[in-house]
Every structure is written in structure tokens, then in C-alpha cells.
Fold:
Amino acid sequence: MTIANLPEVSGKLTENRPMDSLSWLKTGGPAEVLFQPAHMADLADFMRALPPEIPVLPIGVCSNLIIRDGGIRGVVIRLGREFNGFEQMTNGNIRVGASLLGAHAARKAADLGVDLAFLRTIPGSIGGAIKMNAGCYGDYLADVFISATCVTRAGDIVTLRADDMGFTYRHSNLPDDTVITQCVLRGPDGDPSEIHAKMENALKTRAKTQPVKDRSCGSTFRNPAGFSSTGKADDVHDLKAWKLIDEAGLRGARLGGAQMSEMHPNFMINAGGASAADLEELGEMVRARVRETHGIELEWEIRRVGEDG
Structure:
């Protein structure tokens, strides 16, 4: 596949684009083609004209993604500043572009007296947060989601409501080749100064328990049980992945340049020079050890995409 064989676009097409510089973990091989659309119509026209056998993968800032060393076949789609809008609608809802960072959306919403504070401590873009129903401290994207505008693999522009998303704990049913372009959120009203203070306290708490200065995608594995379909924790049956990993003796475990954090054993970090294979193999080693010691199958929270090196 070459750019010459692809539909014409108003945005930018780049062949064999190295992905390590776009990856949160600074690993990964090249994308066969990277597409940066100029606007939503450009994206829809491209998807409609693209031969159906060519795979498509939308990415954000890759804060929950391991890109394998062999790179990604097909077209990788990354939205830029044209998709990072933010505005308050007349009904009080917030319209947010999919490429806007969740932390920025939280700050802008707080200025308007809208509490989206939980997004402040979650790295990544709004589109990715919707895809994985991101959350922390008991609040989840599903709690504030009204709708999302998306472009399907067939090139159709559709509006999806909460019932269409199939939100569960750290998951939605959004197809992997559907691109979120913007969304509408509704958070609780509050005093701007109190919301900003709440976010600052959350950042301080996070810094005490998580390796915020290391290259990490956050939680490596989902908590294995004790969560309802809405993503809320069940205190009676709550199991924590970090505790299972710790009890298996893997706090600080290392493979090549990949390491399970000493501070938080469910955070996998690039401790220096890690390959994507190092990261994934360490994760599989952790899963195997927890299976042996606890009889529990940990599920990856970090997505892994692309070809082996």
C-alpha cells in the first residue's frame, strides 16, 4: 500500500511514519500510513473511499497503548488540533473535541462551574477516555456521557448515545475502526474554585501513590472482579490487581527495559530502552505468575496493537 493508491485528502498522509515518537511509552514500529484529517468531512470522505480490506486504527496520544515493534499495517488515524474544540452549549452541556486532553477539558469545565474533575488525573485524550470508559476515584466517563459524534469505517457520520456505547468497567462496545470526533458531556454543577481545589488535591494524592514521573500507561491490568455493568466498584467483592501482583512477588519485577513499578506494582514503566516486546512479555509473565499463585486471570487494560518485531 502506498499513498498513491489511497483516496485524496485535504489533510496529511505519511508513509512509514515512526510511531515511537507518538507513543506514550516511546516504543513501537512504524505505521504503514498515518492519516491526519483536516476536518470531519475529510475523514468521512476518506473512510468511504478507502478499500474495505485496508485496516484502520484510530489513536489518540497512546496513553493506554503498546504499539508492537513490527509497526501497524493499514492506516493509522490521528486527530489534531482541528478536533480539540471546547464549548458550553445553551443547555449547560459541554461539547468537547475528541483530541482534547482530558486534563484540559477538566480545567476548562471547572472554569465554567462544571465538575469533570476526575478527568484531571487521567492522561490521554477525550476520544480515548470514551473508548475505554476511563475513570478514577469512583467516577467514570459513562457517568457524564451524553453522546458522541463518530465516523464509521464505512464513512458514515453517526451520533451515538449512552445506550449505544455498552459501557462497562474500563470498556465500551465502540468498534475499533470507528473514529470519535467529538462528544457531549454533562457534569455536576459546582463552584469553580472548589472544583479546581478538588483537582489539585487529586493530583497530590495521585503523586503519592503512582509513578507520575515515569513513562507509564497507568493501570496495566483491570481489577479482576467486583465491578457492576456501570463500572462502579462493589466493595463486597472488590479485588485489586495491584495487590494480586504484589502478593505474587512482582513489585519492581523487570524484563529488559520494562519494569513493574516499585511504587505501584500495577503500573508498568519503560525504565529505559524498553522495547514493546519487553513490555508485553513482562505483562504476560505477571499474568502467568498471578494465575499460578491466585488462580486468577488478569485481563490487560492496556491495548496492544500492531505486528511483532
Residues 276-294 form the longest helix (19 residues). The radius of gyration is 20 Å. The first strand starts at residue 12 and ends at 17. Residues 83-193 form a domain with the Uridine Diphospho-n-acetylenolpyruvylglucosamine Reductase; domain 3 fold (CATH 3.30.465.10).
